[in-house]
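Tokens in:
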């Protein structure tokens, strides 16, 4: 491992977790660029009426190098079944994927576990992916208990998905205040 590299040379699948504005995406982008070229799977579905979210997406787009291949898709599991490109695939992020999955199944009022088939497909695709993969995901379980059912549902589902992805990945980092903490 070089002085600039955070991961081991054996790292094949890397999970990057962190809270809002923790620096998780920027850290993941550095990891992805270590072994380029980069295919960037952006899972957000832009909503023209949500100006705040549109600004977040724009900041991410502006930060990405022009030579990165960007695929905007709310279905990273399907994208991972294609032959891997040379370099690294970066998925940013699992939280927006989860929101899209819950929306697609109209499951905000459904029992927990309704999106299990989607989570199973994602975890299986990550486990089977033969290329280098960096995955960004929010860590939301360290704060207050959400006041709404939808907030609690999201927190519980992302916690379960994060545990499964962490078990599947070779390395995992928690980003706090822009600083990476190696978990495994």
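Residues out:
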């Amino acid at each position: 491992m070089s002085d600039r590299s955070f991961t081991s040379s054996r790292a094949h699948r890397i999970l990057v977790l962190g809270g809002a504005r923790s620096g998780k995406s920027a850290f993941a982008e550095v990891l992805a660029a270590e072994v380029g070229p980069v295919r960037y799977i952006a899972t957000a579905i832009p909503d023209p009426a949500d100006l705040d979210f549109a600004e977040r997406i724009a900041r991410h787009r502006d930060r990405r190098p022009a030579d990165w291949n960007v695929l905007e898709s709310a279905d990273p599991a399907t994208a991972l079944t294609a032959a891997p490109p040379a370099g690294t695939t970066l998925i940013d992020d699992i939280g927006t994927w989860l929101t899209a999955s819950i929306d697609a199944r109209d499951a905000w009022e459904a029992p927990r576990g309704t999106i299990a088939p989607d989570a199973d497909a994602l975890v299986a695709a990550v486990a089977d992916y033969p290329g280098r993969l960096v995955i960004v995901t929010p860590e939301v379980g360290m704060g207050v208990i959400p006041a709404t059912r939808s907030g609690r549902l999201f927190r519980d589902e992302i916690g379960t998905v994060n545990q499964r992805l962490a078990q599947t990945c070779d390395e995992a980092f928690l980003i706090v205040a822009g600083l990476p903490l190696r978990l495994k």
